[in-house]
Design brief:
single chain, about 300 residues, mainly alpha, 2 domains, 10 helices, 7 strands, about 60% helix, Peptidase M48 domain-containing protein, hydrolase, metalloprotease, protease, metal ion binding
Amino acid sequence: MSLFDMRGIFFVSRYCRVSCFGDVNPIRPSDGQIFKGVFMNRWLITFFMLFSLSACATSPTGRSQLMLVSPESAVASSRQAYVQTIQPLQKDGKVDSDPALSRRVRLITGRIIAQAIISHPEAKKWQWDVKVIDADETVNAWCMAGGKMAVYTGIVNKLKLTDDELAQVMAHEISHALANHTAEKMSVAMASSIGTLGMAIATRDSDNRGAIMSGTVLAASLAVTLPNSRAAENEADVMGIKFAALAGYDPRAAGSLWEKMAKEGGSRPAEFLSTHPAPANRQATLAALAQEMMPYYLDKKVRPVYQLP
């Protein structure tokens, strides 16, 4: 029996009772309303399946990606979000308040951007920029779609990052942008919303709707959202360590970076429920990658620097 047939039976059984004589007595809306509900379920599922099949993309490492949101849309949204994030901080004097640190971040980032553009020429059109945000308790850095970046003073000062380690951070974040992970995350969120909407329609008259809906959200998170986030993190690690090595930064620093991250983070949830691979697993993977990247790092050629505004 198909899912659609089972859904129709569920819908009818909710609104019908069977008498002791075996006759079916309707205590439900009209047959037309039942048909409309079942048809809507079929339409939503069919539409989503067809739309998803037509919205697949391939990442730089060959991984399949769901792309319901175009990279261009993600760039436009990120540009607006960047302005909304940075402007209030600038008014409060929280942006680039340490000139020496800002110069250091810009030089390292500029060298990595130059390598990123060589590998991904389309990124030359991006409006690259990086800001250092004065927030000593925030251990974070990010790069939005389109190349808008921020580094928090907390990640540099609390972890006492070397230039090589800071390069790993920036290369990792830039790799997220180059691999269209922002558009992918937006697409996954959209897909999860569509699925949740379909379940809401299918169970709108169920006495157990609340329990079913909470289970649906959790299932979507475990089965769709989190695994994609973990895959994206692994992908950014692989791409980032190479960009940093090509830019002249020691790839072995990726291991020491995540050792510091592990100490800073303390106890962590199980890897299965984490958006990032567990530090021990990550360090092992990066240690192997570092050996592969050493020839790029040891190459004595001149490293170009992208001139940030």
